[in-house]
Design a protein that fits this description.
4 helices; single chain; mainly alpha
Amino acid sequence: MTEKASLPVRGIEPYQPAEGEEYMSEAQLAHFQAILEAWKKQLQEEVERTVSHMRDDANHYADPADRATQEEEFALELRTRDRERKLIRKIDKTMERIRKDDYGFCDQCGVEIGLRRLEARPTATLCVDCKTLEEIREKQRVA
């Protein structure tokens, strides 16, 4: 039984490179561009839904406990949307890298990041090895 790669967006199948296909070919770049555009659209729709939900559900409860619960729910939604807004900016930067033909290669060592890693995290800028080293260094700084 083969396991399917999990893409951040539904409806887009994992890329299957042709035998001998060059890494980051036009078809591969188009595939990742489609993933990024669909992901960005999905995130923007969530932001719009949240704004609409908060506008429609902004009740003025007389009970302080009910009001506090609603405010906490709104605060949690806003934190989530803030993370998504940051992700949208990262997606935009990644799409710019595709346009500049600078996508799919590690920022630190220059090796191929790899199709499967990019499908799991299309905004990745580091190969697995460099990302692992970065995380180890981060843990050492915190400790």
